[in-house]
Amino acid sequence: MMLFGRTPVLPTREEALVGRPERPFAVPERHTVLGNPLLGPYPEHLEVADFALGCFWGAERKFWQTPGVWTTLVGYQGGFTPNPTYEEACSGLTGHTEGVRVVFDPSVVSYERLLKLFWESHDPTQGFRQGNDVGTQYRSAIHTHSPEQAAAAASSKAAYQQVLTSTGHGTITTELLPAQDRPFYPAEAYHQQYLDKNPGGYCGIGGTGVSCPIGVAPAEG
């Protein structure tokens, strides 16, 4: 995992960029495809899920194309620097992932179904990279918003690890962490729904080709 001769390493809190108290740019009001607001507060019947699976351009499109998803937005999460810019996140000095926030109607699409899409849309065994995209910002992560989400994410990870192992793939490196105390900082306007605005734009998303079972991991033996 070399990038210009340097192995990606997560910074410590002390090493991370200082950041700023307020976002240094404006975020669009509405989703260009779904038409709904990007930023909360959201209607009470909806739930929020946060995923990181490589370059957020293609990752976001995967989720906005899913029935039951009310809105999506891309941003930076899981690091130390408050209100980072894209350039800062890509420097590797903020500790953030390139994340996707998915706001969904659980009566239409379950969190488990979103987890299945997450696992199958990237290779979660690659550490600080996705394909040719190398850097700590491209690592795989799930930031959960409830104990129920945390349990479902852990079960799906165990289930997918079993099928990955049986097909010759490596160990999942995905971080499973609570979203609490890990703010989601929305990205700049040009990143939001990037592949809707630029249909021929770069999309680095690609899975292992291995289907992920939905639900609790099967018992061994």
Automatic annotation (TrEMBL):
**Which family does this protein fall into?**
Belongs to the MsrA Met sulfoxide reductase family.
Q: Which Gene3D superfamilies does the entry link to?
A: Peptide methionine sulphoxide reductase MsrA
> What top-level class of enzyme does the UniProt entry assign?
oxidoreductase
* Active-site annotation: 55
For this UniProt record, the keywords arranged alphabetically read as follows:
Oxidoreductase
Q: What functional role does this protein have?
A: Has an important function as a repair enzyme for proteins that have been inactivated by oxidation. Catalyzes the reversible oxidation-reduction of methionine sulfoxide in proteins to methionine.
Pfam entry (one): PMSR
Q: Which reactions is this enzyme annotated as catalysing? A: [thioredoxin]-disulfide + L-methionine + H2O = L-methionine (S)-S-oxide + [thioredoxin]-dithiol; L-methionyl-[protein] + [thioredoxin]-disulfide + H2O = L-methionyl-(S)-S-oxide-[protein] + [thioredoxin]-dithiol
List the NCBIfam families: msrA (TIGR00401)
EC no. given is 1.8.4.11
Source organism per entry reads Streptomyces luteolus
Which segments constitute the Peptide methionine sulphoxide reductase MsrA domain? Answer: 50-203
Q: What GO molecular function annotations does the UniProt record carry, in alphabetical order?
A: peptide-methionine (S)-S-oxide reductase activity
Supply the name of the protein.
Peptide methionine sulfoxide reductase MsrA
